[in-house]
Design a protein that fits this description.
By secondary structure, the protein is an alpha+beta fold. The protein has two domains: 5-63, Structural Genomics Hypothetical 15.5 Kd Protein In mrcA-pckA Intergenic Region, Chain A, CATH 3.10.290; 75-251, Pseudouridine synthase (2-Layer Sandwich). It has helices at 15-21, 27-35, 98-101, 128-135, 155-163, 203-210, 241-251, and strands at 13-14, 39-41, 44-45, 52-53, 60-62, 65-66, 75-80, 109-111, 118-125, 143-149, 165-167, 170-172, 176-179, 190-196, 215-223, 226-227, 236-238. β11 and β12 form a beta hairpin. It is elongated. 30% of the residues are buried.
Length: 267
């Protein structure tokens, strides 16, 4: 044992204090959560009230949901309008994302891309590791789109989308697809909801072209655990604590980081 009493001083921060600072619950309730075995640190249950952790490096979850400890990280949900490119500076001078990122003190950037004619959910963040990982095609984040397509879509066409079709860069199948009520479409066109985890370039448009129902309008309604909801076009908002928790849980679901850069627009 060291003769210097400072060498024996406890290091780290008490777990209940960390949870309270993260806004999970009061210290007293946090202590009850810890005692009930609901809190894990780096994947291991820690039910001792004297537990101390390093908030900068340790990963904490409650009931299996990740807790954001680094409050410097921001996560913003944007309903991107059509006509806006998914770039922080467009070389051709087209409208870009700076309208939403320049108002932030932090340097926000987009997670993945939507082509200029696709509207809907786009995540902005200053969390580089999360952005790189979730945008990469190999990670396979599930996304849902609603497409207004030309012509009357028949049930057999929906079946083709989920069974798989051949494209020039290989076969592809939707995770889910369904035809939405005709009352929501007009002029002999159809509304199709399609869910897939592929990150291939303009994949939704190419799939629907392949079944002879070209896209007239396309909106991304979800990205992983995030839902666009009723957020108006062109508006943005901070994610709620619950949404951040679900997003970080998805991010932590694999420890591997892809080496290659993602390419192309999602849809």
């Amino acid at each position: 044992m060291s003769d210097d009493p400072l060498d024996d001083a406890p290091t780290g921060v008490r777990l209940q204090k960390v949870l309270a600072a993260a806004g999970v619950a009061s210290r007293r309730v946090s202590e009850e959560m810890i005692g009930a075995g609901r809190v894990t640190v780096n994947g291991e249950v820690r039910d001792e009230l004297g537990t101390r952790i390093d908030p900068e490096n340790d990963l904490v979850s409650v009931d299996g949901v990740a807790i954001q400890l680094d409050v410097s990280k921001r996560y913003v949900l944007l309903n991107k309008p059509t006509g806006v490119v998914s770039s922080l500076k467009d070389e051709q001078g087209r409208p870009d994302l700076r309208r939403w990122t320049d108002t932030s003190e932090e340097r926000l950037f987009n997670v993945g891309r939507l082509d200029s004619e696709t509207s809907g959910l786009l995540l902005l963040t200053n969390d580089g590791d999360l952005a790189h990982k979730l945008a990469h095609p190999s990670f396979g984040v599930q996304k849902t789109y609603i497409a207004l397509v030309r012509g009357r879509v028949m049930p057999k066409t929906i079946a083709r989308l989920t069974a798989g079709i051949d494209l020039e860069d290989g076969p592809i199948a939707a995770d889910k697809a369904r035809l939405l009520p005709e009352s929501k479409a007009s002029g002999g066109n159809s509304l199709v909801e399609i869910t897939l985890h592929s990150g291939r370039n303009r994949i939704v448009r190419r799939m629907l072209d392949a079944v002879e129902h070209p896209v007239l309008e396309l909106v991304r309604r979800s990205f992983g655990p995030l839902q666009l909801g009723t957020l108006p076009v062109g508006e943005s908002r901070e994610l709620t604590k619950a949404e951040v928790g679900r997003l970080l849980t998805l991010f932590r679901s694999t420890s591997e980081m892809p080496d290659e850069e993602p390419a192309g627009d999602d849809a």
